[in-house]
Amino acid sequence: MAEQKKAKIAKAPKMADPIAASIDEASQEMIVRAQQLGVETVFDRAVKMKPCNIGIQGICCKNCAMGPCRLPLPKGGIEGEDDRKGLCGATANTIAARNFIRMIAGGASAHSDHGRSVAEVFRSAARKETDAYKIKDTNKLLQIAPYLNVATTVDVDGEVKDRDIDEIALEVAEIAIAEWGKPEGELLYAKRAPEALYEKWKKTGVVPRNIDREIVEIMHRTHMGVDQDYKNLMKQGTRAAIADGWGGSMLATDLQDVLFGTPYPLQSESNLGVMKEDHVNIVVHGHEPVLSEMIVAVSQKPEIIEYAKSKGAKGIQLSGICCTANEILQRHGVPPAGTYLQQELAIITGACDAMVVDIQCIFQNLANVAKCFHTKLITTHPIAKMEQDNVLHIEFDEHYALEDAEKIIRLAIDNFQNRGAEVMIPKHKTTQIAGFGVESIQYHLGGTFRGDYYTLNDNIINGRIRGIAGVVGCNNARTRHNEAHITVVKELIKNDVIVLTTGCNGIACGMAGLLTPESAAVYCGPGLAEVCETVGIPPVLSLGSCVDNSRILLAATEVVKAGGLGNDICDLPAAGSAPEWMSEKAISIGHYFVASGVYTVFGLHLPTSGAPVFHDYISKEMEKLYGGKWDLEADPIKHAHMMIAHIDKKRKELGIDKARERVLMDMADRQALEA
Ligand code: BF8
């Protein structure tokens, strides 16, 4: 007995199998390295701790102190009437719907609060309260002003003249900020949607009033004893999700473009191999580009580079993790060091002199990992601190933006000399082209001659491009890192579906070499390959960070406007996907795509499986309201084919399915024809 006990104690701790944990070789190498050094990562914790089987089904209610009430679905499913209820009588549908829309509230608040911070910095710039930020892209400013009811011209003695840019910026700033909390009216950007979609929202009563109100109302409605009708709960979830996609996120994207420049395609690299052993490595991680833009600017100053050299480094290598990475990638070509699941691994290289974090998707375990190395972990945002005592907090103030950025960079440079002997940077890195957007798609596929989405539509109608997919979202340690992302995307492009990507899917595609024009010849079906080759674009277009999913909404709107493919987003041969989702933001994004008419498939699982009636509502009935609906498929090949089947269904409805049946002829066929 005593021996048995001893044997139990001596049992080795459960650790992740690096090959099973990730498809990415750089990550596999670093997981092995972490295990050699005795540093625990998320991959190990995922093996040690199983997710809660009831929470995963979405039917645990902890909204009052009589619970938590747990309503697990019986193993054989429900036969007859579903009489499961919580102490108050809440049904599985009510509980799952409440939990689901609270996730929407979490996600919408994260995107929208990010947008608000940008809007405040934008207002500081418009008021000229800061030297660090300026209106960089006046074209974009003039483009968005009319949607905010801001005039761009003025009548002087009967003559129409251009209005002063500073004046426009100031008015745009004030009106934009009011979108979060104005006392009456409706979200102004809702009218940017195709008219048919806006009318649908109007009819179903889901046009958002202001951004904050829709989120607050979710918290009210899901309080104990308020809204107890899953359809009515989802109506509010829809209104908040639209306020995110067409409001908070879209304003974040637009105002960032005006402040920092609208992205255009540029070349960069991706993966942990972008870090350099002989440079000071600063990794920025999080979401708001307000700080990282300043870090980029200061790190290029000659005196700062000289300072780095004076400490024995050859220079400064900036890189990014998560959506901050996408922000500085799309505007400056700064390479991403990795996706969400690689954040700990960047420190485990031993070469990360500072990791600078702001908000969202940041592991608290970074502090524990940083403790094992020389890395300075610096939090910068007043709403996002960490309890561990090795974490430095340098609060970033937009009024002293350059000074704050310089302080952080000098700290990283000073830390270069404190590196241990344990540096090991994986060699893997991949070339990529990123920085696409509504404007550059128009340029590349429309050209200066046509200047609209006509060419894209034409190629969809003639069947070279079968359809459009938005593949986006996170990694999740409950599934093999990047496997579903890459399998779904490869299967889509193989079947001539052009992919628009954002977030961690975008970084994953970069790492897998799918963001280069050359990849078209290797991975695409003949139609898409031909288009990519002709216009010189990759088959997967990287559109930026998660707030930039709003670019996908606007690109879809442009496709509708260009004509020939129906009147609404739901008419398009298009589908959405988040193969490895994990965050509440993903649920909000998924739902604003559904509410905008997009068939949206998630991988892994959905927190609705414990309430089959509610699940059917969002995955079947919802289509009647908005033209889009949810679906779920964990197998990435089946997942991609569900999207393709939907695309084909839409092609048939549009009467363009025959075009796809064209036969590619070889020379013998042609000669036979001529004969
Ligand atoms: O907002 S994709 S893991 S980084 S939540 Fe987070 Fe998901 Fe990555 Fe960006 Ni989006």
How would you describe the overall organization of this protein?
With 675 residues, the chain is of the alpha/beta class. It has 27 helices and 18 strands. The strands form five sheets. A six-stranded parallel sheet has the order 8-7-6-9-10-11, with helices on both faces. The mean pLDDT is 95. The structure holds FE(4)-NI(1)-S(5) CLUSTER with Oxygen.
Major sheet characteristics: 6 strands, parallel
What's the overall average pLDDT, rounded? 95
Bound molecules: FE(4)-NI(1)-S(5) CLUSTER with Oxygen
Residue fraction in strands: 5-15%
Distance between the termini: 90 Å
Q: Please identify the structural class as seen in this structure.
A: alpha/beta
Number of strands: 18
Pick out the low-confidence regions: none
The general outline is globular
Radius of gyration: 25 Å
Number of helices: 27
The amount of helix comes to 40-55%
Tags for this model:
single chain, 675 residues, alpha/beta, 6-stranded parallel beta sheet, 48% helix, 11% strand, binds FE(4)-NI(1)-S(5) CLUSTER with Oxygen
Q: How do you describe this structure in short?
A:
With 675 residues, the protein is an alpha/beta fold.
Walk me through the topology.
Elements lengths: L1 H9 L7 H4 L3 H13 L4 H7 L11 E2 L7 E2 L21 H35 L11 H7 L8 E4 L2 E4 L2 H14 L16 H10 L6 H11 L8 H31 L5 E5 L9 E6 L3 H11 L2 H9 L5 E6 H11 L3 E3 L4 H6 L3 E6 L7 H7 L4 E4 L11 E3 L7 H15 L14 E5 L3 H13 L3 H8 L5 E5 L11 H12 L2 E5 L1 H9 L7 H5 L2 H10 L4 E3 L6 H14 L11 E5 L5 H12 L3 E4 L9 H15 L2 E4 L3 H19 L12 H8 L1
Parallel strand pairs: 6-7, 6-9, 7-8, 9-10, 10-11, 13-14, 13-16, 14-15, 16-17, 17-18
Antiparallel strand pairs: 1-2, 3-4, 5-12
